[in-house]
Each structure stands twice: as structure tokens, then as C-alpha cells.
Amino acid sequence: MKPSDNYFFPIGYAYVATALKSAGIEFDYIDLHLHPTFDLEAHLRTHDYLAVCVGGLLWSLPHFKEIFATAKRVNPRLACILGGNIVVDFSSQILFEYLDIDYLVIGEGEITATLLLQHIDVHGISPTSLEGVAYRTPQAPGSHVRNARRPFLDLTSRNWMPTWDFVEVDRYSYSQKLQKRFFPVLTGRGCTGRCAFCSPTNGRYRGRPVEHVLAELEYLISHYDFDYFYFINEVFFQTEEQIIAFCRGYSRLKGRKPWMCPQRMDTPLSVLAFMKEAGCFTVTVGLESGSDAILKKMKKNITTDQARAYIAALKEQEIQVEASFIFGNFEETPEDMAKTVDLMLDLDAFGPMVLCITYPGTLNYQRARRLGLVRDDLQYILDPHDAYNPSYLRQMEDHYSGKRRYLNITAMDDDLLFATVVREMRRLYSQGYCYRQVTASTQDGIVYQLRGTCPICRGIVEKKASIDDPSAFQEHLCPECGEPHVHFPARIIPVLRQAQEAALVELESAGSIAVVGTADQVRAFLKLGVEGFPYDKVAGFLRSADSDPLHEGSWIGNLRQLSPEEVAHSADTLVALGAAAGDALSNLISRGGAGFRALGALHEAGRLGVRSVFPYGRLGVECCLESLAGAHVLVACCARQEPVRELLRSLRARGCTVSVLILQDSPSLIEVEDLVNGSTITCPGSLFNAQTLPEAALTSDADCAVVPFIKELTGYGNVLACLAACGIPVAYAWHVNNSQVPDEERRRLVSMPYPPSMPLVPRPS
Q1: CA dihedral angle for residue 381, residue 383, residue 385, residue 388, rounded to 10 degrees
Q2: Contacts of 692 (CB under 8 A, 6+ apart)
Q3: Helices 392-401 and 414-432 sit at what angle, rounded to 10 degrees?
Q4: Residues 493, 499, 504: CA angle, nearest 5 degrees
Q5: Beta strand 513-517 with 460-466: parallel, antiparallel or unpaired?
Q6: Spatial separation of the C-alpha atoms in residues 654 and 650, rounded to whole Å
């Protein structure tokens, strides 16, 4: 059985399956990751099994406990067997005490698991002489016997190949990033390195013969439909001669596929040309750190000079590089982390960052125990059992919220560590992952056609972006290579750059800042950022939408969610991330409650500044009329009479002074004058037009405008131009609830920018 939290390609299970089939042992395979609702108890009650076998990593321990408890509840005589990395790196005594298990398979399972199952089937007693096994001793409850470890599997005398016919390979083989299907292959087991953060289950590297690997590739090509091979072990081949022999042999295979592989950066550079010729398109390397001091403490046995030379050689061969690195290393400092990002930017390298996980069985874990950071091995595993979160921001959120504590082994406290990670990753993403050679063209000054070169694949990408839409400048998938973090920088558009620079000047006098936005906007603010923003002044964030799935006291990255009362007490500036400043404040106040009303009062009293780093707000989500109580409102009549009359009645009921702007050729709208308690302004023609505004409109003193709409967008660009020419500071969209507005039209309308950036020339008075 494969536990539900194990999302890896089940290659270890596939190797054991080969051995079981060779020995004539029948088995069923249940993948709880793909089928998390599978009723295990019902299945076990209707089948007669000899044993239940599970394996994996330490963090799956709670899942192992649930599986084995279910098995023993159904049939106490079922042999429960655990294997995988967990039994190598963790205390056997704790495993036997915590889990309802009978046996441990220590190390590689092909031979040991097969012999153990045969022994249980024939003898049904403890395997006292079976190598690679630990077993519970019934005579002394809580105790166990651990036999000598079995010698490593001989990978040369037999071509060990995984069996895949029992695995749903199609559900594992799709790469979301590359949008292609791959097949995993091992060229060997173990690793030549002894890194402080890693514990390879199978010890020192042992390679398979080149001819065995080629035979497996030939079989997979002829039996499965996929796009490329992915060699997934830590070391591709150990020697220069083996790599060259593989490349020459693979080049002769019919129907061969492109492939990618890992490499240590102490591999001879001479092999790269052979690899490229044989179809290698990507090499993954462990850059790990840009600090030679940290690399030494990692026991990585490479230097930054080697990394520079190796990555340069890969690029010379036009082989794409995926350079992973780690933050949170033993005794790491902010300066060390800055060196890593400096190196990534200098090399123009890309790859995932992970926060260092202190895994039992590693040198880092021994260090942590000596420092007193780990006092209880079992509790340490149970607390962060899902520690491998690919999002560093979400790991911080889990840590600060108390969901999963992060074990910090650096030279920094938690707050400094996380603040440094956020700052340095923002520097990497904002500078390294933006499109290059970007051009921006526009016909109306609002919607821009952006064109740029992806920094990873060098493909040409085009995208439309509106200056009022912050999401257009957030990270997205490159359509060419699938890289998920690339983005177009907002500063490429002059009007946005100038507006942001002006806003940053205003923020120089701010004392404490609270940012306002949705959860996604706050994450983008932390990840991609705004160049020059005073992040050290940010006290936390205030949600702009109640629909965000966050609870009180939540965190986003290393920013805490603030209540309105906390903002009123500790911040002197609100910064809106996704709307014009006035819109953001109005939307907050409209949510109701004393705290939000207090923010409005502070702003009116001049004690709370409101700014926006993205100055062009939307025309508006549908206007919350409660927020306009008592205001002087200009209604631009762009709909039929019925919704206009409903809007006017609603505004008057809230104490608003209501003026209307109507078209001269819409006589039916004249009938709404009984609901007007301000002025009626008539614009000649069939469309609102800034060039033909009457004097009364140009001198309007309305606080805001509301635009009712039904379904069509014809003329709305002119409406906005008209309102801007009148000097109206804020405009909102509003539609009657029973109108038939298609969702697409509705989204288009509320995304129109206000004020428009096009030059406006009002009619001379």
C-alpha cells in the first residue's frame, strides 16, 4: 500500500513488485494517494491476505499508524510490514512502540521482502536468521530483535527493472510544468556525496551497467506512450567513460526520447557535448548555496567557482539548467543567503528553493540534537509530518499559526530568518524571473499588448494587460516552457512606473504601514514586490474581501493579519495593493462594523493616510450603496429607465443628493426627474462624449459617480472619459439584481480603468 501523503512516482514499489512476481507471490496494490477515499477496512474484510506491506518517508508516520491499526482491527494475525527510508533513519524501538507492526524491512526490499513473506507463509514464526529484518518479540512485549543488515543488492548480475503494469502510470507521468508525459528511470542507487542535509537510503552510489539501462529504455519506448525520460537518482553515472558509453548507445536506439538527468557539478565538463548530442535537454544540479562557507558546512564538496564553470558549460551546450538551492542551512546568516541570490542572478540560473528540513539520519539532525533543538524524536516527527511544503510562504504561515513548527538551525532567530527569506526570494523573483526585452504597445492608453522573452526557455510570449489590473503583472505559467513564476514587470509601462514612483515618494514620510488586499495580492506583494517599497515599515495586512479563506490571526508569509482596531492603533498609512486608494477605503468602510468606520473617521481627520501602489483602480465592483450614504452622487444614465429609477430611489433613501447625466435622445429617461434632488444635466447626442459636455457637467461638484448598467458595453469608454472630464474623483459600477448581465460582460465592465489614462479635452466653455 502507498500512503495518501506520498505523491512521488511509486518506483520503489515497482521494483519490489518485480521481485514478488519473480518469486510467484501474488499481491494487490492499493494507492491511497490516488484513491484517498478507498475503504481499506471493507477491502480487508473481504480478502484473505497474508500480510500488509507499506513503505516510505518519516513524515508519513501518522498515515502508517492509521493503515496498520486498521489492518490489525480487521485481523490481528495479519503480518504488518514496514519498509523504506523511515526504517533506516529512525529508531526501530520507537517504530515498534508506536506502530502496530510485526516486521521492518531494512534497506532494499527486493530480496528481503520476498524471503520474509515466504518465511511467514511457511513457518509463521520470527525469522531469527533472516538478514535485513527486525521483528517484534512476543515473549517480551515492546521489545524487538534487529538482525544484521543484508548486503546491498548486486545491480550487475541481474538487470533489475521495475514492473509497471499494476500502477496507474498515466496519473503520475504528466509534468504540469512541461505539460508533457515523462517516465522515471534509475541508472543506479545511492549517492557519491555525503551532504549534511541528506540521508540516501541506499548508501554509497552503485551504478547499473550501461547495457541494463539501455535495455530498460528500449522496453519502455516500445510499451508506453510518453514524451521524455527523467533519470531521477541523485547521480546520473559515476564516471566519464560510463556517461559517454551511455550517450553513444542511446543514440542508436530506435524511437528514442529526449531526456533530463541530475548531475553533480564535479562531473567532467567533457561529457556535456555527448549528452546534448544524445538528446539531453535539461540537467538538474544542486547549487545549494552561493556561500563557500555554507557549502563547506553542508559537506557538499563543491565550490561556487565549480558551480560557475559547470553552469556556464551547460549553457554553452544549450542545455537548460535547473539549479535548486536551500535556505535555512546550519549556521547560515543573512549575508550567506544574499550571496546565494547574488550567484543565481549572476549566473542567470533558475530552480526551486526549499527551506532546509532537518531530517533524522542526517548530520544536520545530529547537530540539532547536540544543540538541544530536538529533545523527543517521535514528537519531532509527529509535529511537522507534512514538512515538505513547496511554498516557503505557506511554511511560514504554518509556523507562525502554530500548525507546524519549523526547526531553525541557522544563526538567526525565526523572525530574522523568515524576513530574510522573503526579502531575498523577492529579489530573485523580481529581478530574475521577469520577461526580458519587453515591449509594450497600446492604442487607447488602457490595454497594452506586452511582448517579451522568457528568461528560462527564451521563447517569445505575448500577453494583454490592462493598467487597472494588478493580476496582469503577477506570476503566471510561461506558455512555452511551463515555468510558473515568470511575470511582466509593471514598471515597463511608463504611466505605471511614474505613478508608483510618485506613491513611493509619498510613503517616505510613513511611520507604520498596513497593506490592504486579497490573500493572493498580499502573497504577490511579498513574492514579486514593488521596487523601492519600504517593506521594513509594514506591520501587517488587512483583508480587502471577507471571502478570503483566512481566519482571524492568520498569517501570509511573515505578515500577520491585522484587525481594523489594530490598524487604527498602530498604523498611520494604508497602502492598497489592488485598487485605487479611494476605492480601497470605501470598500473597507462598506463592510460595516465599528472598526472599519473608525478607519474612515481617522482618514477624514487626517490621521490615516491612504495610498495605492497600483494607482488605477477598477471602475468598481458593484457599488455598495451603504458606503455612499449622505454623498452627492452623479448618476450617469447608461441603462433602461427601470434600473435607473431603482438606483435613484435607493440613493435618495440613504440621504444622498442625486444628480443625473442623461442623453438628449433618451426622452424616456427624462421621466426620472421626480427622483432627482440635485441637477439634471443633458448631454447632446446618442453617446456621452467629453467633447460635447455642457457647462453644467463640467462644473459638477459631485463626490462620485455611479454607472448603472444592464448588459451592453457600447459607449462605456466614452462614459468614463466624460466623468473624468467632469472632475469626478471616483466612479462605481452598479447593476440591478434582476438584470440579465452575462458574466463576461460584467467582468469586462468592472475591469475598465478609472480614471482613464487617455488625454481628455473637454468642450471649451
Answers
A1: -100
A2: 683, 684, 685, 763
A3: 160
A4: 125
A5: unpaired
A6: 7
- Helix, strand, coil tally for the chain in percent (to 5): 40, 20, 45
- Nearest 5°: the CA angle 543, 546, 549 is 85
What's the Rg (C-alpha) of the chain?
32
Give the angle 490-556-466 at the CA atoms, nearest 5°: 20
pTM: 0.80
* Distance, CA of 656 to CA of 651 (rounded, Å): 5
DSSP letters along 461-522, please? EEEEEETT-GGGGS-B--TTT--TTBB--GGGSHHHHHHHHHHHHHHTT-SSEEEEE-HHHH
Sequential DSSP letters for 360-413: TTSHHHHHHHHTTS-S-HHHHHHTTTT---S-HHHHHHHHHHTSS-----SSS-
Report d(CA 729, CA 702) in Å as an integer.
Answer: 9
Q: What is the DSSP letter of 434?
A: B
Closest Cα to residue 34, out of 143, 149, 174? Answer: 174
Q: Which residue reads 435613484 in cell numbers?
A: 648
**pLDDT per position as a tens digit, 315-362:** 999 999 999 999 999 999 999 999 999 999 999 999 999 999 998 889
HSE-CB for 704 with a 13 A CA cutoff: 23
CA–CA separation, 688 vs 282, rounded Å? 57
Model confidence pLDDT, tens digit, residues 119-148: 999 998 888 889 999 999 877 777 899 999
**Strand (E) or helix (H) holding 675:** none
* 759: pLDDT strictly greater than 60: no
Q: The C-alpha cell of 727 is what?
A: 472632475
Closest CA to 681 of 712, 705, 713, 709: 705
Q: Which three cell numbers stand for residue 600?
A: 474612515
What gap in Å lies between CA 221 and CA 449, rounded to an integer?
42
- Grid cell 543488515 — which residue? 149
* 221/215 Cα distance (integer angstroms): 10
Give 228's contacts (C-beta < 8 A, 6+ positions apart). 178, 180, 181, 182, 183, 257, 258, 259, 260, 281
State which H helix or E strand residue 576 sits in. strand 573-576
Cell of 214: 539501455
499's CB contacts (< 8 A; 6+ apart) are 615, 616
Helices (H) and strands (E) in the chain, counts: 26, 30
Residue 263 carries which DSSP code?
-
* Sheet with 144-146: strands ordered across: 51-55, 79-83, 103-105, 133-136, 144-146
Contact 49, 69 (CB under 8 A): no
Element (H, E) at 118: helix 109-122
For range 458-468, the mean pLDDT: 86
Separation of alpha carbons 137 and 96, rounded Å = 10
Model confidence band, residue 686 (pLDDT cutoffs 50, 70, 90): low
Angle 19-25-30 from CA coordinates, rounded to 5°: 85
Q: Higher model confidence: residue 32 or residue 673?
A: 32
